[in-house]
Request: fold
Amino acid sequence: MKTIPVFSSQDEIALLKPRLMDAMENVLLSGRFIMGEQVQLFEREMAAYLGMKHAIGLNSGTDALVIALKAAGIGPEDEVITTAFTFFATAEGIHQVGAIPVFIDIDADTYNLNPSLIESAITTRTKAILPVHLFGQAADMKPIMEIAQRYNLKVIEDVAQALGADYNDRMAGTLGDAGCYSFFPTKNLGAYGDAGLIATNDDALAETARMLRAHGSRKKYYNETFGYNSRLDEMQAAVLRVKLPHLGEWNEARGRISAKYNNALCDLPGITIPARQPLGTHVFHQYTIRVQNGWREAVMAQLKSRGIETMIYYPVPVHQLPVYQSRLHVNLPVSELAAKEVLSLPIWPLMTAEIQDKVIEAIREIIPTLV
Ligand SMILES: *Cc1c(COP(=O)(O)O)cnc(C)c1O
Reply:
């Protein structure tokens, strides 16, 4: 029995193999591996895709968060309002610039920041809001931007999971001061290694970010500040350039697969299908259901015994992770309940109907045994 993974890049690699091999061979033959033509072209293509003035290639989404925060002037003792229902890198980025993450709760349906909780979390030290566009759809940016403008706060968007999603006819990650993207291999546009990017329309922020990614120097060997070694490399840029033209069709495929899951699972007791943010589109980085009645672990185990992999994003909200446990005493009941109920099912753009049918059939058989 062949295991059904939660994500696979094998179909896409098979499909694009000749072009990927050509692109990588060209980089090898160019002899230029850092800050060459491929990075420049990819940055230009991403800026055009997003409709943004600046796209700055970096070596990860995590570094995009660190460098965007630092370039936006966020530093020691500053408070940044964010979500705890996210991958750890969101909070880590805030920590790495010396700032303090202030966790507020999420919307129970979309798992994104609940904007109505922002204002009461603002203090004199608050400098920024960091919304995460989780699972493939944007947080409710309209009220978030209104509050940011009223209190003069920066908005840094964590778009690692939502490249290609819209909000109010603008692309996710292009509404705040900077959008931080990840090309980790499992993301909607995945490299074959680590890679990330900042998009912004702010010239000063872009210039600082470019300087920070190259050891704090605008001109080589004339370092002006302490920065990082965080450049996107040529090999990953070349791979991403082959894949970027397919992103639209692949995001649509994720949408079709999700719609089929919705139809097949919506009538099952104890299962809640994903909700949509009314002003946005969803690119389903994850297809995440809620499993109520304490059934999640049983569903997961029974799927596993049938060779079907599922994942929990995220089993522990950030404020309850070992790194914070002893120091943080916040209650985020919506995030804490979500962590106990969410289950992400297998999804990738080139997943076949046959494979998806197996997942659906298995869930439809398992649920009645639990009722
Ligand atoms: C993947 C991810 C990141 C980090 O991106 P890397 O490229 O792996 O460093 C940050 N935030 C979220 C929400 C992510 O999913």
Remarks:
- The chain has a mean pLDDT of 97.
- The first strand starts at residue 54 and ends at 58.
- The chain has twelve helices and twelve strands.
- Residues 284 and 290 are 15 Å apart (CA to CA).
